[in-house]
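Hi R.,

Here's the input for the adenosine-5'-triphosphate complex you asked about:
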Amino acid sequence: MAHPAIEISGLTKRYGEGDTAVDALKGVDMIVQPGEVVGLIGPSGSGKSTLLKCLGAVIEPTAGRMTLAGETIYDNGWKVADLRAMRRDRIGFVFQAPYLIPFLDVVDNVALLPMLAGVPNGKARDRAREMLAALDVGHRAQAQVSQLSGGEQQRVAIARALVNQPPIILADEPTAPLDSERALTVIRILNEMAQRFGTAIIVVTHDEKIIPTFRRIYHIRDGRTVEEAGEARAA
Amino acid sequence: MINLASRDILHGWGKFVFTGVGLGLLIGVTLSMAGIYRGLVDDGRVLLQNGGADLWVVQRDTLGPYAEPSNVRDDAYRSLLGVRGVAAAGNVTYLSMQIQHQGGDVRAMLVGYEPGKPGEPDYLVAGRPITRSHYEAIADVRTGFRLNERIRIRRHEYTVVGLTRRMVSSGGDPMVFVPLQDAQEVQFLKDNDALVNERARTAANPAFNRPAVPGLLEAVQASQASSRTVNVVMLRLAPHADEAVVARDIRRWKHLEAYTRADMDEILVAKLIATSARQIFMFLVILAVVSAAIVAFIIYTMTLNKVREIAVLKLIGARNRTIAAMILQQALGLGAIGFIVGKTAATLWAPIFPKYVLLLPEDTLRGAALVLVICALASIVAIRAALRVDPAAAIGG
Ligand SMILES: Nc1ncnc2c1ncn2[C@@H]1O[C@H](COP(=O)(O)OP(=O)(O)OP(=O)(O)O)[C@@H](O)[C@H]1O
Ligand SMILES: [Mg+2]
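And here is the predicted structure with adenosine-5'-triphosphate in place:
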């Protein structure tokens, strides 16, 4: 059987030192299979964003182990030399706000990722257009970012996260600014993409509307994870 | 890979172009300042060349006639002609004055010279040289005088028969050339009352008014009414004569100072316009600092407005080098726009300046290099700020 997309064990993160130290993560365990969409919920300050940042290799954990698609990337220290390239090639990010680059048009916002990986411009744009079409915003490819609706922008942001076909997507409250219909659409799209590309997706959320859509949920409380079965039935 | 800098500039080009134009006007002023300095030096060189002189003979212990006043007796040229190696000698006078013209007055430098001798303006843009010994004038075009126009200088009217170009004093005043005797008269002319007064005083002096010596009083009075000095004697040397040797002979035997063209050049650049040059240099330094501050400020604010985009770029895997290059290219782009605007402005407004503005290609090149260096330095602050942006900031809390 293939490796899990994400495997985390005993991960801890301490901010600061001495008296002011904060233990944001106190031993997180988590396994996510390819094609799976899992929810990550918990009260404010429980460590959700901290966990995403560790997985996204933008902050260094204090101890523990992280494995992505069978490769150990962290084991009490980074095991990957070029974290920047790892982020670019293996992890897609979706944020609460779309965070598109306003001075690039829609297609280049998406094409920028393959371009950064060294793909020639023409090919990168082709891939971007394909991905935009898959997300039903292909007709807006030449538009300026500012001409898009909030929902369209979020889809472009998802296209950007997917375009390099990373094994993992990390989404931090991707539905927060959207109404419930659009929020559910975004989750439906993420599920479709996970199915289609075998991407493992972790969705951090507070959003009561979408929590019922997850089959599996990790509840994070006081720096530790508790796995729960989600309400969604296997359909 | 697409060019992020140019995309960002095109996205918000209005602000960028406005800043570039503002910067360009500053650069234009800077280039003009340098041009004014070059113009000063060049005016001086043209002045030295145009007289056709090899040696300038002036009053002893002075740096005359341009940097200090100098008086030489107007018959000294005769004995100078006797010095070995001297081929021609011409008396020349200089006097700064206001000349009435069309209801206003023009500040000019009145030059007296002897037609056909050293000191004569040898290049006319219109008209002819002075042929009569009185009441003809050659004027620099900057005076605004026209050919055949009659102008009034003190008591007499002169006809403008020729026009020169680029003949100005070191102060920038255009020159008006008239025959030597007319100029001497103007320079040392007393008004009628003073003349009558002087005559009466001489007549009352028993030493001059001697009935036993008829004609003495008239002779004395005549000598007082006309001048007997000039400011410089310009010499042209025989072919093969060594100007240094001739100058040394004149210093030793004639009790006069003699300067070669190289000496005059040195006096002009090192003494006469040295203060102006320092002043212009101060302006250049200040303008360079102001330009740097403007570029630094604009690029810094542009970067701060993009902190979120920069965090996202870093998160999705852009190299620091890519981000630094984007900011550097924007600074250089701003400098390039500024330079093009500045060079154009300086070229367009140069003819309007009252003083000659000489824009040398090498100054332009130096200016371009300096602008780009300043812009690159000014972008350092912004680049440092951008490199400090934490990619984690894109994920948020
Ligand atoms: N850079 C930091 N330095 C020090 N402490 C931090 C830092 N970032 C987060 N913390 C602390 O770590 C703990 C976990 O923070 P985190 O941002 O992961 O919570 P969260 O679950 O994302 O909360 P929210 O739902 O409000 O976004 C909090 O107590 C927070 O104060
Ligand atoms: Mg958070």
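One thing worth noting: The first helix of chain A runs from residue 48 to 55.

Cheers,
M.
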